[in-house]
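pinging the channel bc i need a second pair of eyes. not urgent but kinda urgent?? the chain im working w is below, pasted from the shared doc
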Amino acid sequence: MFTCAVMDDKNNKILQHASVCECCPHALKELENPGSGNGKSRRLYKEYCPFLGNFNIITSLTTKERFFRNSYSLLSVKSSLKGEETYEINDGRALVNENKYMIVNQGQNYESLIESDNEVESYCISFGEEFARDVMNSMILPDELLLEGSIPHSTQPIIFFEKTYNRSPEVTQLLHEIYDVFSDGITPAILEEKLHQLMEMLIQNHRALNAEIDKIPARKLSVKTELFRRLSIAKDYMDTCYNRNLSLSELASTACLSRHHFLRLFRGTFGITPVKYLMNIRLEKSRQLLGKSDMSITEIALETGFENPGHFSKAFKSYYGISPKQAR
């Protein structure tokens, strides 16, 4: 099942797909997805067009299996209400679920995969250029400029770090509130207010990354930023491929860094070594499976990347203070 709403931010109203297509045939096309998948779910395909500068788009897709190839993105929050979706972008891989969201910048190409025994509900909020820029201006410009209306004109899109972000309780609540308004008969004024709140939170979370970026021992900000981007790619790769036998060489290669350089920067920036970070992910995933699946302890150990049940049980007890059997 696929649902979508397009919001005209300037005129504070909701447009249907057809309305957008009739106004600008090159802006949005509703197409059958060229990738594989079950059912007849549909998605929006977008080619760049200035017409969409004022529009925010909310989409939801429920399916067990779907592959989106060579997709073009607006500035978007990729999230999930249920289950997991894997994204490939910038030669990296990232996993989105109920606990993590990803930001994809305008004009970026990406691919995504849903492959699950249970239904996954993918959830995406895309922001128009002018909408995002207006929120940013209100946060960084002095009140004098905002009051006088002499805001410098800019055609540059807002750029975020394309990485996964932990969903704070505030972001999670807001995402669900937007979805509820979107699903229960849209009230434009309420929806607009919540979209403004969400964009402000996203910008605040993005700016909070400066504390981690400052830990990188490089003189130039451009170098610090690039190194942080590479480290984030490797970190997202571990979040996605935690059940594989990942070596330090493979992780360093993902970040396009030498092994020692990667190890030193990762530990200095995130306060934990890559191996320890990977182990923590495996243990957290295993506890989730212990609580909600009927898999045996041996199956869970192998599913989460441990070599054998003995190693898993020892690591689990050291981390949580109880055995896997006691955690069930």
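so The longest strand covers residues 109-127. and Residues 188-208 form the longest helix (21 residues). — does that match what u expected or am i reading it wrong
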